[in-house]
Amino acid sequence: MPNEKFSFKEVLNLKLLKKSFLFLAFPVAMMFFLSYYQEIYGKDNYLDLFNYLHGLAFITTDIADLVATSYTEKFTYYLETESKGFFIKMLYHKCFAFSIPILFLLFIVYKEYQRIGLPLFLIFTIAVLAPLLLHFVAWDVYRIWAFPYMTMFLGYWILNLKFKNNTDQPKQFPVSLIIISTLVMFFLAINQPDLFDFEVARFTLIERILMVMPILVGFIFYIKAPKRIF
Q1: 48-73 as b/e: b if 16+ CB within 10 A
Q2: What percentage of the chain reaches a pLDDT higher than 70?
Q3: What is the pLDDT of residues 161-207, one digit of tens each?
Q4: Is residue 215 classed as helix, strand or coil in its secondary structure?
């Protein structure tokens, strides 16, 4: 978009809409086609997939059955079973802690790019949080909570390319938010993760603390002396 100031008028530009349609038409059509195929014929592929996985020496019968079932189950089945626990997965005590760093990062983006205006920041926020809707149809809760972080940094990169910050003064953020966000990240890093198929993580608590310490030290150093790094 040529203008520094974002506007919905530019988003609804006919030329841009045509380009967007050409870019999105094929992947969207394929998504609906595959979903329809899975709904009608998905179960027919169960035996082929199970036999292939079971033929591999390092995959047990139970795991082969679980994977084959997961990949051939109907979309409507997942929607019916998983949507019931949507709010539990959003507010579950461990997973809800993920939202605090996400909100803190959104606050940083807002402070950094206030001049882009609320409409573009609203679209940015929706893009970041939209992957959480997968909780309606999927059960891998922790992986889904990681998606907003990837979208966050991609969006931040795009904004940084388009809206350069001309000031040399480092941004000042409330110390309380920094402390809370750091403590939550530390909690999530050292907390025992829930793995698939009831597997147990092999890192001890001491090992997880040692792995996260360099990150915390670097973060504290950046807060204390940001100009030395850049």
Answers
A1: ebbeebeeeeeeeeeebeebbeeebb
A2: 81
A3: 777 655 555 556 667 767 777 777 777 777 776 676 667 778 888 88
A4: helix
For residue 212, give every residue at least 6 positions away whose Cβ sits within 8 Å of its Cβ, in sequence order, or none.
186, 189, 190
Residue type, 70: S
From residue 86, how far is each of 78, 119, 135, 136 by CA, in Å? 12, 28, 6, 6
Residue 230 pLDDT exceeds 70: no
Please report how the helices 93-112 and 141-162 are oriented relative to each other, as an axis angle in degrees rounded to 10: 0
Cα torsion 41, 42, 47, 53: sign: positive
End-to-end CA distance of the chain: 30
* Residue 166 · residue 182 · CB < 8 Å: no
Q: Kindly state the tokens that stand for 102.
A: 């996400």
Radius of gyration of the chain (CA): 22
Residue 201 to residue 193: CA distance in whole angstroms? 7
- Give the whole-angstrom CA distance, residue 19 versus residue 116: 23
The answer to whether the CB of 63 falls within 8 A of the CB of 53 is yes
